[in-house]
Design brief:
Blueprint: E1 9-15, H1 19-30, E2 35-38, H2 43-51, E3 54-55, E4 66-67, E5 76-82, H3 89-93, E6 100-108, H4 115-119, E7 128-133, E8 137-141, E9 144-147, E10 154-157, H5 167-176, E11 182-184, H6 188-209, H7 213-218, H8 220-239, H9 265-286, H10 292-298, H11 309-318, H12 324-337, H13 348-355
Parallel strand pairs: 1-2, 1-5, 2-4, 3-9, 5-6, 6-7, 10-11
Antiparallel strand pairs: 7-10, 8-9
């Protein structure tokens, strides 16, 4: 592992040295790519600065250059990756121009929507790239990260759908492929909506019920509500003329199908088998993970619900639609942030009522 080379213009600056940003930084630095991390002061920052970043499964710590403020940098960078919480985006962007050239690109590798709109207040849209991160990691101690997904990719593109063959994007693709497969697309909005459809279900429900993703999926009634939530969001996406893309090799439009009583026995069997396979794969890949909203609430931090479920509710309102399940999630999460609602299974009854699931079909113990 070598130190960054002294150049007038740096290659990659990563703002946010958490589980995703830290992992990307470590892999690029280990490949001798000129990279620097930015992270707020605290135990995580201090540990990385003093001892390096530890990623479980790797023998030695990664000694990556790290600063705690953009203003501490004395040069500009070609590629600037934003991997902070959406709530911190605007704060970061206020100082971003000082480290960008007219040809630099800034990348949002964040969940949800609305972050690129904030970025556009500070840099031209043609310099903003949106991204989807299809793998997971978690920071389990200051300076220590664990990779939680064995597979997954990066997807990058300009939101206007143009210039997917831009030489700067291709350079970043080559960098990121040192870690995971990377796709350049002219429909990044479609990919982001597809991921939003999944995240808008597991992220709030894990928090609302205080369950892991695996526990959500194994619970029959919650699993049914999850399907209803996906269908609600897919209808909103399609009403907004979004062309949805596959995520994790799953066509999210397949979530639209729901057997009717009049459907044939074989149709119901086929649907049941497909649902079971998807569920088992999801449990195997992500079963032990608790959502970021759950971690935020337990740490008494604000969540990103406005950028996920809140965004869906707003996009529905814009075209005269309702989003009752997403609206409940926004309401419940905000009440939890303000300590006006407890996490737990006592919240199930309200979602059952909104979903229209027959109470007779819900076992009494599931509502406790």
């Amino acid at each position: 592992m070598t130190e960054s080379k002294d150049r007038k213009t740096g290659e990659v600056l990563i703002i946010g040295a958490g589980s995703i940003g830290g992992t990307i930084g470590a892999i690029l630095h280990d490949a001798d790519i000129d990279v620097c991390l930015i992270n707020r002061k605290g135990d995580h920052y201090n540990t990385i600065k003093k001892n390096g970043l530890i990623i479980e499964g790797y023998e030695k710590p990664f000694k990556i250059p790290i600063k705690n403020n953009i203003k501490d940098l004395d040069r500009k960078y070609k590629h600037v990756l934003i991997v902070v919480k959406n709530l911190d985006t605007e704060k970061v962007m206020k100082d971003i121009k000082s480290i960008m050239t007219p040809n630099s690109l800034v990348y949002s590798l964040q969940n949800g929507f609305g972050n690129t709109d904030l970025m556009a207040k500070y840099v031209p849209k043609e310099q903003i790239v949106a991204g989807v991160v299809g793998w997971g990691a978690t920071k389990f101690e200051p300076g220590k990260i664990k990779i939680t997904s064995k597979t997954g990719d990066f997807i990058l593109g300009f939101e206007n759908g143009k210039n997917s063959n831009d030489h700067r994007l291709i350079e970043m693709k080559n960098f990121l492929e040192l870690w995971r497969p990377t796709i350049l697309t002219s429909n990044i909005v479609g990919f982001r909506w597809s991921k939003l459809i999944v995240n808008s279900v597991i992220t709030p429900l894990s928090a609302i019920f205080n369950l892991t993703i695996g526990e959500l999926l194994r619970h029959k009634t919650i699993s049914q509500i999850m399907g209803d939530m996906k269908r609600e969001t897919i209808h909103i996406a399609e009403a907004n003329k979004i062309t949805l893309e596959k995520v994790d090799n799953i066509n999210v439009r397949s979530f639209l199908f729901k057997p009717k009583p009049k459907d044939s026995f074989f149709t119901k069997i086929k649907f049941g088998l497909l649902s079971k396979i998807v569920k088992q794969v999801s449990i195997k890949r992500h079963g032990e993970i608790k959502s970021s909203f759950l971690w935020d609430l337990k740490s008494e931090r604000k969540t990103e619900v406005d950028f996920i479920n809140g965004y869906i509710v707003n996009k529905a309102k814009e075209i005269g639609l309702e989003a009752p399940l997403n609206s409940f999630c926004v309401k419940a999460i905000k009440e939890m942030e303000n300590k006006k609602r407890d996490l737990g299974m006592q919240n199930l009854q309200e979602l059952v009522d909104i979903s229209g699931i027959s109470r007779e079909k819900v076992k009494e113990q599931e509502l406790k």
